[in-house]
Write a structure and sequence with these properties.
This protein is α+β, with helices and mostly antiparallel strands and about 150 residues long. It contains four helices and six strands. Strand 2 and strand 3 form a beta hairpin. A six-stranded mixed β-sheet has the order 1-2-3-4-6-5, sandwiched between helices. Helices cover about 30% and strands about 35% of the residues.
């Protein structure tokens, strides 16, 4: 997962330790895609402690060699299908990340869900320069088992 995030060119890279611990602690709300024994994609998520019906997807990425095969869409579908108590999917996306915007918009459409976008974190929230604002995407009214 760390390698895919590093090579993505768009994700904030966390330490390799963080990916290992998050995969362990949030295995029920995360997924990996494997091809020929290699990890080729992942979705890291967690249920919000104060709103367990909400699944927050923290990062999702697919190895460049596997793009265009709907792997990211299948990862999202799989994790939500396994969590029937989840009625809302959340993520944040910067304005310049058109691929992620399309991915989550198509997820909402595929599942007949509402999709709203609004501010969450502005550039001023980040201590490191150059980090764009993160817009909150909420996909709500997911039906059980979608």
């Amino acid at each position: 997962m760390w390698r895919i995030a590093r090579d993505s060119g768009t994700l904030d890279l966390n330490t390799s330790y963080a990916y290992l611990i998050l995969a362990r602690d949030f295995a029920a709300t995360s997924r990996v895609a494997v091809a020929d024994g290699d990890t080729v994609g992942f979705a890291l998520g967690y249920r919000r402690p104060t709103a367990p019906e909400r699944l927050f997807i923290w990062q999702i990425a697919v190895d460049e060699s596997q793009r265009g095969r709907r792997i990211a869409a299948r990862l999202l579908d799989a994790v939500v299908a396994d969590l029937p108590e989840v009625t809302t999917l959340e993520t944040t996306i910067t304005e310049d990340n058109a691929a992620s915007q399309r991915l989550f918009a198509s997820f909402a459409e595929r599942h007949g869900a509402n999709h709203s976008v609004g501010p969450l974190l502005t550039e001023a929230h980040f201590p490191d320069p150059g980090h764009g604002a993160e817009l909150l995407h909420e996909i709500s009214e997911l039906r059980s088992g979608t």
